[in-house]
Design brief:
It is a single chain. This protein is mainly β. 6% of the residues lie in helices and 55% in strands. The protein contains two helices and 13 strands; from the N terminus they run E-E-E-E-E-E-E-E-H-E-E-E-E-H-E. Strands 1, 2, 3, 4, 5, 6, 7, 8, 9, 10, 11, 12 and 13 form a 13-stranded antiparallel β-sheet that branches. Strand 1 and strand 2 form a beta hairpin.
């Protein structure tokens, strides 16, 4: 794993010749060694970033290519950071939650309607994430940001996990999601309209949940 957790809000990454890493622009806090930072906002593997760089509003998320030899410390906005190790599976996460990730990972996007049909699109509207989400696939590490810390909840066959859509951060594995109506005590005490829905994840993998309902 190229990331070392310095504390809850900072990670350090080892950069080696012939390897590259991507990070949000402005996320570099300090570095040692001969390291270069090249801004890019659009394109695909091996060059400019493609739709992975889109923001919720359809704008490009400013990203940097990090190369060279040395170590770099990353953090952004005082957000808590969770390092996720992928072993050939796919991580689903919003682009603006990505702090940094291995350049070896295959990048792409997924239409939310593809998981859960129409309800997948409803989920995008409820969470404010829009109709697409970012995917990272392969072997490597990803550092994601969240409010108030993150807990990893395993998802196993026959035991789905229900998550408040506003607290959802990311998930990976062979997982299906659907949005269901959740009428209960939280709605009765006047919480936000998003509380009327639950995100149900089933299959085999894990979901990451933040200890807050705040958006980044």
């Amino acid at each position: 794993m190229p990331f070392r957790e310095v504390n809850a809000k900072m990670v350090e990454a080892a950069i080696a010749p012939g390897q590259k890493m991507f990070s949000q622009r402005g996320a570099m806090l300090a570095y040692r060694g001969d390291v270069t930072f090249t801004p890019n906002i659009a394109g695909g593997q091996g060059g400019l970033m493609s739709m992975i760089g889109r923001r919720v509003a359809g704008e490009a998320t400013p990203l940097m290519t990090v190369e060279g030899r040395g170590t770099v410390m990353f953090g952004h906005g005082g957000h808590h950071i969770q390092v996720i190790q992928l072993s050939g599976d796919t991580l689903y996460v919003e682009a603006d939650r990505l702090l940094a990730f291995d350049g070896t990972l295959e990048q792409g996007t997924m239409f939310l309607g593809a998981q859960g049909g129409v309800m997948g699109m409803v989920r995008g509207q409820v969470t404010g994430q829009g109709l697409f989400t970012t995917t990272l696939k392969g072997h490597g590490a990803v550092a994601v940001m969240a409010h108030g810390g993150v807990i990893e909840l395993p998802i196993t066959p026959g035991r789905p996990v229900h998550v408040d859509p506003q607290a959802y951060v990311a998930h990976h594995g062979d997982v299906r999601n659907k949005l269901s109506t959740a009428l209960g005590w939280r709605d009765m005490v006047g919480r936000g309209s998003g509380e009327a829905f639950q995100l149900e994840l089933s299959g085999s993998g894990a979901v990451y949940v933040q200890a807050s309902e705040e958006k980044l």
